[in-house]
Amino acid sequence: MAYPTVSAPYGFRPLNRLDGVAYAGATRTYKIASTYNTPIYNGDLVILVTGGTIEKFTGTQSGSPVGVFMGCNYTNAQSQPVQAQYYPGTSVTSASAMVVIDPTALFQVAVTTSGSAISSAALASIGSNMEVVPGTGSATTGNSGASVLAGSETGTAAFPIRVVDVVYATATGADAFPELIVKINLNQFNYTTGV
User: Fold this and answer.
1) Please, which residues have CB within 8 angstroms of residue 8's CB and are 6 or more apart in sequence?
2) How many CA atoms are closer than 13 Å to the CA of 94, on its beta-carbon side?
3) What pLDDT, on a 0 to 100 scale, did the predictor assign at position 1?
């Protein structure tokens, strides 16, 4: 029996870099526009937009995320400074997001159906590209609901995520892996088109 069981998607969790160097918690801070009213959760992919601010990445089959959202600072409706795991999207000002932007960063992520039910991928998925399931984050935990789409493993260059490895510890069968180790395939800072 595998341990631990993967019961729900949780977004993209930083692990280390492609060259094996340990992830040291490095992030870059970006502003979130005061007019942006979409929640962003810990582990969500984000994109840099015109004006130098970030927004939640909503692509599934194409796009170039800049990195992964790790939390934020903002001022709430009572004018109190808040450090939070997620950006609520409303009733806040002066929001700044912490984002893992390293183009070589690796992330652990769950494999799900399009409806966010846990599924799996085979060992043969290593080296393929996959679609993203944006999912729904939790205001209770602050965690993302993002995952990668089971069955989308292919060589399609436009797909946003590249599979680097499988997570053996949570395998549910000889060739069934509900979690993968991935990197952003077309990181926005490596892509030749600017914002």
Assistant:
1) 110, 116, 118, 145
2) 11
3) 46
Q: Is the pTM of this model over 0.85?
A: yes
Q: Give residue 55's pLDDT.
A: 97
User: What is residue 79's DSSP assignment?
Assistant: S
**What is the spatial distance between Cα 141 and Cα 138, in angstroms, rounded to a whole number?**
6
DSSP character at residue 191:
S
In 3D space, the residue among 152, 163, 179, 176 whose CA is nearest the CA of residue 59 turns out to be: 152
DSSP state at residue 51: T
**Single-letter residue type at 136:** T
Residue 74 has φ and ψ, to the nearest 5°, of -160, 170
Written in H, E and C, the secondary structure of 4-50 is: CCCCCCCCCEEEEECCCCECCCCCEEEECCCCCCCCECECCEEEEEC
Give the tokens for residue 2.
């595998």
Which pair of tokens denotes residue 180? 């993968």
Tokens 């595998």, residue located: 2
DSSP state of 154: B
Spans of the chain below 70 pLDDT:
1-3
